[in-house]
Amino acid sequence: MTPADPRSRWRQYRAEPGDGADKPELAVALAGSITVEPLEPYLGAYLLSRTIRPRITVGPFNQLPQICFNHSRLLGAVDVIILIWRVEDLFPEMLGRAIQDPQAMSSLLEEVRGLADAVAHLGHTFGGTVIVSSPPYPTYPGFELADIRQGLCGMRVFQAISQLWSERVGRMERVRLFDLHGLVLEIGVRQAHDVRKWQLYRQPYTERLWHDAGRTLGRMIAAERVSPKKAVVLDLDNTLWGGIVGEDRLEGLELGDDFPGRAYRDFQRYLKHLKNQGVFLAVASKNNVEDAMEVFERHDAMILSREDIAAFEIHWDSKVESIKRIASRLNIGLDALVFVDDSAKEIGEVRERLPEVTCVIVPEELAELPALLANTEFFDMIEVTDEDRHRTEMVVADSLRQDIREGLSEEEFRQSLQLKVSVFAAGRQHLARVTQLINKSNQFNLTTIRRTQAEVEALSSAANALVMAMNISDKYGDYGLVGVGILRKEEHLCIIDTLLMSCRVLGRGAEETFIAKLAEAAQALDCTEMRGKYVPTRKNAMVADLYRRFGFEYQPASDEWLLALTVLPSPPPYVEATLDLSARLAAQPSR
Amino acid sequence: MTDPLIELFAEVLQIDGARLNEETSPQNTSQWDSLAAMALVAAIEEKFNVRLSTKQIMKMSTIGRARQALQSMSVPV
């Protein structure tokens, strides 16, 4: 693909938005200390490819501090603000002197700190997402990378600025850092710069740089709005190791320090990293189960262990069947799966019969295997939460629960779990996880309203709203934060704006308990009735009759469900339930 | 056969190619603004696999001038 393709895609879209013109647009504003217009088509086309319909505007040239202090006047109403800046544009003379003069160096750092403060101000006053670039290594006299003395002077100045910037921006809650310097490095300083463009248009970069910047920024934006994939289904022979275990035996497999074994080992390292970020790993292999398991247990170069794999399907049935079983076992949709195999035939069959599954074939060039998934947007996540890190352990605990279930009645099973449910007003520390659930829960989700973290944070401190969360544990382990309810208060009416739960915890009394405690919270807010809506989607049929089951009455006129808060519903007797509104009370002055 | 250079200008400027000719310029074409000028240079360099000098870019004030610049680099347009 040449850079011209996204540019013409974007032109076409601008001329003819096509299907879905009624869907809401995402308003993105760009601004920079350089001309940033060349970014627009690349960012726009990338977002379109991720099913986001963007409207992109460009703010005034080289007025970053003014924009930070007056974003609504200079940029209008937008959802995302992207700021691109370079030290040499904003503070050129000081940068030149900083190489020689410690005094100038500290004034320069003072200026950079001032810009950081301005960006922090923008983060506080703007309700959406702010993305700001890291300063790239300066293009300025004294900073020539090929100069034999540059190392001592230029590098020192640059490092001081970068360190200050990343440390400051890292502390800002609603501001994300776009590593422009890293991107220039990745492309190569020479490939990224075009001196003609700098002289003619006041922008220093090649189309190549803008292309990659559009993709990176687009991924950052999409990661807040599009659910990441949740699991990788892996073939074994010639995917996790070289060779065929049934024929080559354990000793004959390629896996270890030397190529090609090294490529498989490095791929496993990346998979382990994914697992630690909360992505499930599963195996779908046509093999004898004893042969395959022996590799996991006895091969000393294996990075992945049995415990890293959340589900095994090792037999001679079709991979299509295996993948379906894995999805149901892990309780995730087929569209949340990535399937990796070396066989074009298997990939073709899965593509054909399970088109929702994302298929990736092991590359012909094995050296490219380790980065096969690293270079994709499949697992882009803004923040990794505790729940993510322990997800596979939770599935393993779940199979313990299933084991004891044998021979018990439903009621006895529920009692034996000793479920503890705590429902509480979400505090600052819960926002990342709450936002994550809001954006990825599909099945047990009554309204499927997606929100960014900034929006959730705004709601959690609003006087007329309550962002509630639910933690669950039982005697086999901790599920963590698995439920979110957003209540809005209008006079004495409490509207259930959002109600969702992770599907892993259903059917054990948690849903009843959650509703009961939300009703109690509504009553504590002086509400006399609760109203909720069921907004059907392709995936949430399982909660179509939820409100009916819990005693709400249907109001055909408004298509809402109503519960009078005269007698509160009570949680099941075998659940230990608590309600805590203190985080909210701390945030609000008392009425 | 359609003229590849006219085709390129038509696509970038989003104007029907029939309305473009050798005299088309920023003065008589509102779509050819400073942003479009940047996009035109990028598109020409990629499509014809050339690198224009800043002098050539400055002189490209009509489609005819752009054609001359390309022809001077032996691009058959």
Task: Report on the architecture of this protein.
Chain A is α/β, with parallel strands linked by helices. The termini of chain A are far apart. The model of chain A has no long low-confidence stretch (mean pLDDT 92). Helices cover 53% and strands 0% of the residues of chain B. Chain B is globular and about 25 Å long. The chains are: A alpha/beta (591), B mainly alpha (77).
Largest sheet of chain A: 8 strands, mixed
Shape verdict of chain A: globular
Count helical runs of chain B: 4
Rough outline of chain B: globular
Sheet having the most strands of chain B? none
The unreliable regions of chain B are none
Concise description?
The complex is a heterodimer of chains A (591) and B (77). By secondary structure, chain A is α/β, with parallel strands linked by helices.
Task: Pick out its properties.
A: 591 residues; alpha/beta; 25 helices; 43% helix; B: mainly alpha; 4 helices; 0% strand
Topology (elements, then pairings):
The complex is a heterodimer of chains A (591) and B (77).
Chain A: H1 4-15, E1 26-32, H2 39-49, E2 54-58, H3 64-69, H4 71-75, E3 80-84, H5 87-90, H6 92-98, H7 102-125, E4 129-133, H8 150-171, E5 175-178, H9 180-187, H10 189-192, H11 195-201, H12 207-223, E6 231-234, H13 245-252, H14 261-276, E7 280-286, H15 289-298, E8 309-315, H16 319-330, E9 337-341, H17 344-353, E10 358-361, H18 386-389, H19 391-405, H20 410-417, E11 420-425, H21 431-440, H22 453-460, E12 465-474, E13 477-490, E14 493-501, H23 510-524, E15 529-532, H24 546-549, E16 553-555, E17 560-564, E18 576-580, H25 582-587
Parallel strand pairs in A: 1-2, 1-3, 3-4, 4-5, 6-7, 6-9, 7-8, 9-10, 11-18, 14-15
Antiparallel strand pairs in A: 11-12, 12-13, 13-14, 15-17, 16-17
Chain B: H1 4-13, H2 34-48, H3 54-59, H4 63-72
